Amino acid sequence: MFELVKAGGWVMWPIIACSIAALAIIGERFWSLQKKYVSPPNLVTQIQQWLERKQLDQARITLLRQSSPLGRVLAAGLINRDHDREIIKESIEDAGRHVVPELDRYLNSLGTIASISPFLGLLGTVLGMIEMFAGISAHGVGDPAVVAGGIAQALITTAAGLGVAIPSVMFYRYFRARINELLVDMEQQAIRLIEILHGEREPE
Q: What residue numbers bound the domain in which 117 lies?
């Protein structure tokens, strides 16, 4: 492995750094974007029980806000539960706008890695070609090692750049779809809460 890195030249080091960063982001997002951490399924049911038993106080709202992104959104609605429907809806939407960047965290970095990795590979290809032609100019075409070294650098860096970019693009798109799915679920839960607060939904 080290021989491949050495043959690829100095361009391999930023490509390796990109691969490490991409792996760290992918692992962190897989952990953080689990449904149980973002949009716990029984949260609205728990709130409904608190309301029915008249147990909903500021301490429980604070606990709810700290529990998850969905909890933060629902807590914003509960704080304004004595106002009309539009005020509750606006407070929930405002909280939702603050939650989205948290779900999107590091995805721009992953997208950047997916974009620049092929260009780093291309840079290594160009540098390999330059090295090859410089060697031919200095030693002629009689020394195959000169040509082979430049071609090896070009191919290794291209493959390495694509090897980082392809999975980065795949996971970037996967996480984008995952976030959209979670946001839709959070919106449905928020609507359910508004209906409960205004007596438009029967207890389950």
A: 2-197
